[in-house]
């Protein structure tokens, strides 16, 4: 998932700051490090690496991983869960942009394909 564009005051305010180790992230989500690695393999989240090469996760990535875990816990295959989360995120962004355009008095134009 791409990083979001909010401008935080400090790293502690930054949802994209890679503050959590893999072990801590897995513990917080109540899952295993293997689950987090699988999310990376399916390109749902891409953790940053510490200088020592260890995976580090942000709060935003943990929220994404938690949503994927909910779907997997409900019986959705991990590949499908990752795709669903990506589509949900894209829809949320599109709705946000449409709302901004409406607030500016512009109507969103549908995309055309040729």
From TrEMBL:
<dbReference type="InterPro" id="IPR000551">
    <property type="entry name" value="MerR-type_HTH_dom"/>
</dbReference>
<protein>
    <submittedName>
        <fullName>MerR family transcriptional regulator</fullName>
    </submittedName>
</protein>
<dbReference type="InterPro" id="IPR009061">
    <property type="entry name" value="DNA-bd_dom_put_sf"/>
</dbReference>
<dbReference type="Pfam" id="PF13411">
    <property type="entry name" value="MerR_1"/>
</dbReference>
<feature type="domain" description="HTH merR-type">
    <location>
        <begin position="19"/>
        <end position="87"/>
    </location>
</feature>
């Amino acid at each position: 998932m791409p990083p979001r564009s909010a401008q935080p005051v400090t790293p502690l305010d930054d949802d994209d700051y890679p503050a959590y180790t893999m072990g801590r992230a897995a513990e917080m989500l109540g899952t295993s490090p293997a689950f987090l690695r699988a999310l990376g393999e399916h390109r749902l989240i891409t953790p940053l690496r510490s200088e020592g090469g260890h995976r580090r996760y942000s709060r935003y990535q943990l929220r994404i991983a938690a949503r994927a875990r909910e779907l997997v816990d409900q019986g959705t295959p991990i590949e499908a869960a990752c795709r669903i989360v990506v589509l949900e995120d894209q829809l949320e962004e599109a709705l946000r942009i449409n709302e901004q355009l409406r607030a500016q008095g512009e109507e969103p134009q549908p995309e055309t394909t040729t």
